[in-house]
Amino acid sequence: MPGEPDGGVVAFARERLLRRIENAQERIWLASPFISMPVAKFIREAVEKSPAKERRLLTALEARSVQCGVLSPAALEQLRDCDFSIASIANLHAKVAVVDDGWGLVGSGNLTGAGLGDEAGEGNYEMGVLLTSAQIEVATDTLAGWWRQAERVSAEQIAYYKSLPKFPKGPARKVGPTLFPPMTTALEAILAEDPATAASRRYWINTNYHDPGDERWWRRDWVSDGSPKSYEKGDLLVIYLGKENNGPQRCPAVLRVERPSRHEPDFVLEQRDFEAAEQWPFVTKTSVVAEVPPSMGALLSAANKTYHSVQRGCELTRTEFEGLARALLP
User: Fold this and answer.
1) Mean pLDDT of the region 290-302
2) Which of 80, 76, 96 minimizes the C-alpha distance to 31?
3) CATH of the domain at 323
4) Looking at residue 8, what is its pLDDT?
5) Which site among 124, 281, 283, 300 is 20 to 30 Å from 14 CA-CA?
6) Among 162, 193, 228, which residue terminates a domain?
7) What is the pLDDT averaged over residues 192-221?
8) Cβ neighbours of 219 (radius 10 Å)
9) Which domain range does residue 156 map to?
10) Other C-beta atoms lying within 10 Å of the C-beta of residue 142
């Protein structure tokens, strides 16, 4: 994949891992003490596109993990059904992926929706490191040594653990904000486009207010403006949050225009209030291409812009768009 230097740090690994699995030619080795059913399905869908024959999962099969719901026996069944050999080390805590001889990742995230991020972009805030060639060799040797000592997991063992009763979940007690993982993989493909594809759409920046009570308001699938905009379907729209409401003065999201702007004050009134309907009555339907937490958004300087040059929204050149897009990548 482009933009993945040896030693690079990643915070949201699901798409990277799945794409590597799809393209694996010989070997897929995974290690994680916890694994969930949704992620097992993602892995199965990816591995069915791969000719790699050597498929291994090293985990820590123990009753408490199963009964707490962090290790799914059904997920292990999914992977056995697509020819993964499964083995267990009771005190395994490592999270490692090695694909063929050329790609490896060591990180904090388990093979779960919380650990890798799910399709909605929800999950824990994790960090991983893409291994150098020398580190891949060491990781491969280490995993091979662990595998020799591990106990192979049989279908009968999985069935037994699957029958165990689950522990009831207690009330969640958390301190501090919940951050969402960056979703930027699609930007890598856009930045790698050929010139003809890049020129087939227009690029815009849309200035909005920050909403501290709804940090991802752009997921509502529409934005509104105070004047008509000449957006066309397929155009890309960068969201800029100004300083109002203690805003970050950064660009945290890129949207795709799904339907051009229309004068729809009644729609805005239904969704918001009378003031919003009067001020921003022109509605554009959108979908999310990429997003990061507002505090991690791209600065306008990445596109050589200032607040005064974008405060009413404006069109961007492809070069300006690329500056903001690259600043969003981890």
Assistant:
1) 92
2) 96
3) 3.10.590
4) 80
5) 300
6) 162
7) 92
8) 15
9) 9-162
10) 14
**Residue 63 pLDDT exceeds 50:** yes
Say how far apart CA 192 and CA 1 lie, in whole Å. Answer: 10
Tally the domains of the chain: 2
Q: At which of 129, 162, 195 does a domain end? A: 162
- Cα dihedral 257/263/269/273 (nearest 10): 80
Query: Is residue 303 in some structural domain?
Result: yes
Burial class (CB in 10 A: 0-12, 13-18, 19+), 20: buried
**For the whole prediction, is pTM greater than 0.70?**
no
